[in-house]
Amino acid sequence: MKKKSTPRSTAKKKPRQKRTYESPARQRQADETRSRIATAARLLLTRNGYAGMTIPAVAAAAGVAVPTVYAIFGSKKGIVSELLDQARFGDDYHALVNEVQQVTAPLERLTFVSRIARRIYESEVPIEDLLRGAGMLAPELASVEEERDCQRYDRQLLVIDSLHKARLFRPGLTRDTARDILWCLTSRDLYRMLIRDRNWTPQQYETWLNEALRRELVKTT
Question: Is Transcription regulation among the key words of this record (predicted)?
């Protein structure tokens, strides 16, 4: 008696999924292209002003195609955001952030708020002056600043929560109100008014802000 042959499975084999990975060399090339475009944009901004920093002009100066600029930055606003972030978040900023991450005491952490605010606002002044040119506020600059203000409001929650958990708020101050006060006092508009309009030094601003934050947020002992 013949043995019955085992039927072959008719189920289709699943196709092998391609491994998704990003080549280090490709990423390095992308970073270099991004940096080259940003450098070209800043040179054009310095030489020709904001109006002269067009996407086609940036692409030509960087030696890339116009679609490449759009693919990396999306728009002129994206270039503006990149230039400001490069100025704001340099080595000094990251050193301060690394330092504050080692601090656990709420009051000691609060002192870093004024130091970081000064560092960011002081660093962005040269780029903002170029963008504002002749007293005109570029729409892209206003949009980027609005986004950064929202991010600042979110990030400051860590400071507020640490003070709240330690019961360090001054009497009658709620968590939400304390958060609003912190956000308001650390605004770049206030920095501009004191530094540009009233001729304060950055050190005066930092000292005043640190004292104001303690006075408005922290209970007296």
Answer: yes
pLDDT, tens digit, 9 for 90 and up, residues 168-201: 999 999 999 999 999 999 999 999 999 999 999 9
CATH number at residue 61: 1.10.10
Q: Are residues 95 and 203 in the same domain?
A: yes
pLDDT in tens, 35-47: 999 999 999 999 9
pLDDT at 132: 74
Indicate the residue among 49, 74, 99 that finishes a domain: 74
Both tokens assigned to 100: 């504050």
Range of the domain at 136: 88-217
